[in-house]
Write a structure and sequence with these properties.
mainly alpha; two-stranded antiparallel ribbon
């Protein structure tokens, strides 16, 4: 996988409460990965991907969701909503205990279609063109319509500093400065995918098809051709998918990624097992916080 595109892998856009941002309308997201320069040097191991050939990614044409083996070691979109809302309730407790009004928060959230390899869903391409689809992730708390004062904002800011993440780990892909084992694994996986002979051939075949259809890519690593207007964008997105099908299918690059993930998971299983336990404990604790604040189990 091309490194620049890899940095957008599984970027999640959830409209949640940003605990550290004092604004009248708050949102917590899995931040897009920065483009640090220079790229850190990564030592890539020799991996026999054929030993994991049975591993497949799961692609949902209707919702735009992609599920890969490493996903079990990060919060799912739903789990991220649960954890962030738990943090928000604890922050609200702090603000109200100080005698102030909490900033508005809550409501439904949005999750962004994975577009690491550009558009891959024909159904979503016909509607959105090359632009990623955003799907609704139901919230657990209705957003209150309240007016806040400057004093309320200052109290929120102070409580944000005090509460922080309330002890909940940020298990999200793509966080800037992340030195976790799962992020280190992904850096290796992306490097292995990028140099994989089958992936390189797939990319070259797809790119030749794109150019043969009169489309222009803005840069060598891009999976999104340049377009002019919505109608042209939809046409281009469908060509992007046609060319992927001719190169080996929209599934292929994700399967290659999944197989390298499976190989690295096997090599780091003990560490990842501990991480999975940490995640499960964090989610269960977050659910209890929500229950303690009157959220019904049906919403969890």
């Amino acid at each position: 996988m091309h490194t620049k595109q890899g940095r957008s892998w599984k970027t999640v856009a959830l409209g949640l409460l940003a605990v550290a941002v004092a604004s009248a309308s708050t949102a917590c997201t899995a931040p897009a990965v920065a483009d640090p320069e220079p790229e850190p040097s990564i030592s890539l191991p020799a991996v026999d991907r054929k030993a994991f050939s049975s591993v497949r990614a799961s692609l949902n044409e209707e919702t735009g969701e992609v599920v890969l083996p490493m996903d079990k070691y990060w919060y799912s979109e739903r789990e991220n909503v649960i954890v962030n809302n738990a943090v928000a309730f604890l922050l609200e407790d702090c603000v109200e205990a100080a005698g102030f009004t909490m900033m508005p928060w809550g409501g439904d959230h949005e999750a962004k279609q994975d577009s690491s390899f550009g558009q891959w869903s024909r159904q979503l391409a016909a509607r959105n063109g090359t632009r990623p689809h955003f799907r609704v992730v139901p919230g657990v708390h209705d957003k209150a319509n309240v007016t806040v004062s400057e004093a309320d904002k200052q109290a929120y800011k102070k409580c944000s500093s005090q509460v922080g993440r309330a002890g909940f780990p940020e298990l999200l892909p793509g966080l800037a400065g992340d030195t976790s084992i799962q992020n280190k694994i992904m850096l290796v996986v992306l490097g292995l995918t990028e140099r994989d002979a089958e992936f390189v051939q797939y990319r070259q075949s797809w790119e030749a098809c794109i150019k043969a259809n009169g489309l222009t890519l803005p840069e060598d690593e891009s999976w999104v051709p340049m377009t002019n207007g919505q109608e042209d964008d939809i046409r281009a997105a469908l060509i992007v998918i046609d060319c992927k099908e001719k190169a080996g299918g929209v599934q292929k690059p994700y399967d290659i990624l999944a197989q390298y993930q499976a190989a690295q998971i096997k090599n780091h299983q003990a560490e990842l097992n501990a991480l999975a336990e940490q995640k499960a404990a964090a989610v269960e604790r977050a659910k209890q916080v929500l229950r303690d604040h009157g959220v019904a189990d049906a919403k969890l």
